[in-house]
Structures are given as C-alpha cells and as structure tokens.
Write a structure and sequence with these properties.
The chain is built from three helices and eleven strands. It is α+β, with helices and mostly antiparallel strands. The strands form three sheets. The protein has a five-stranded mixed β-sheet with strand order 2-11-8-4-5. It has a four-stranded mixed β-sheet with strand order 1-3-7-6. A two-stranded antiparallel sheet has the order 9-10.
Length: 148
C-alpha cells in the first residue's frame, strides 16, 4: 500500500500546472527527494518550491487538505506554514488535485545554491483512492537546488 501511495505522490509531484511556470523555476519537493535530494535549475530564475496531491475524488482531496500541515524553510531560516496555501481542488487527467507553491524570492547565479526543507504531516489517515497515508509525516524532504 505504501508503494502505491508513494507512486501516487511521485506522480503528483511530477505534474506541473501551467500557472507555476509564471513564477520561475519550480522544484517538486518530493520529486527532488526521490532523485537524491539535489537538482539544478536555470540561473537567473526564481526558485519556487512546489508539491501536488492527487486523489480519485474531490472529497478525498478535501480530506487531505483538512488533515495536512505543510511547512517549508529555506537555507535554515524560519519555518513557514503553507497549510492554508493549497490550491482549490480541480480535475486533471489523474483525478482531483491540489498544489502548493512557495516562491522563495531567490534567484540563483551559476554555481550558487539554496537548500530547502519541506514537510507534510497528516493529523489522521487519509485515503487517496488507492491507499492510505498517515498519520504523521508523509513527506520530509531536504533538497539542494543549484543554479546552472
């Protein structure tokens, strides 16, 4: 079951709504984690931390949104609570999805890097249509982004 949940989460992390590109270079928190915790992005573009969640039904997405607590910190700075920043659930080819974005305000030069820590915790178990996740931390990702 956890493998299916991880697969669903990874799939959600790789899908990018077009609105995200308006920010700059986005980095999927879970996607970075499963790729070893390091990614490169074009120098001179703002780094945006992103994460998605996809379920089979709108009600399941809403349950996730009510159960989650999401935080991010950049370069060891203060923890920022993103729990209320998830997008309104919408349909896509995979089901019902919601996303959260955190524009860091940082544009990296070639060879410069930043590190972020991103966490999603669930207050109770949630079902995404395939498997259950939680309670507790379901994503705990540290990622280093380097400008290229």
């Amino acid at each position: 079951m956890r493998i299916l949940a991880a697969l669903a989460l990874a799939t959600a992390a790789l899908a990018v709504p077009t609105a995200a590109w308006a920010y700059g270079s986005d980095v999927g928190a879970y996607g970075c984690y499963v790729n070893g915790g390091q990614v490169t992005r074009p120098a001179g573009t703002e780094i945006v931390v992103r994460q998605g969640w996809v379920t089979a039904t709108r009600a399941q997405t809403l349950d996730f949104m009510h159960a989650q607590q999401t935080t991010v910190s950049v370069n060891g700075g203060s923890t920022v609570d993103l729990s209320n920043d998830w997008t309104t659930p919408r349909t896509d080819a995979q089901g019902w999805r919601t996303d959260v974005f955190y524009p860091t305000g940082i544009m990296l030069g070639p060879g410069q890097s930043l590190t972020f820590h991103f966490v999603i915790s669930l207050r109770h178990r949630v079902f995404d249509g395939f498997s259950y996740s939680g309670p507790g931390a379901i994503v705990d990702s540290t990622c280093t982004v380097t400008g290229a």
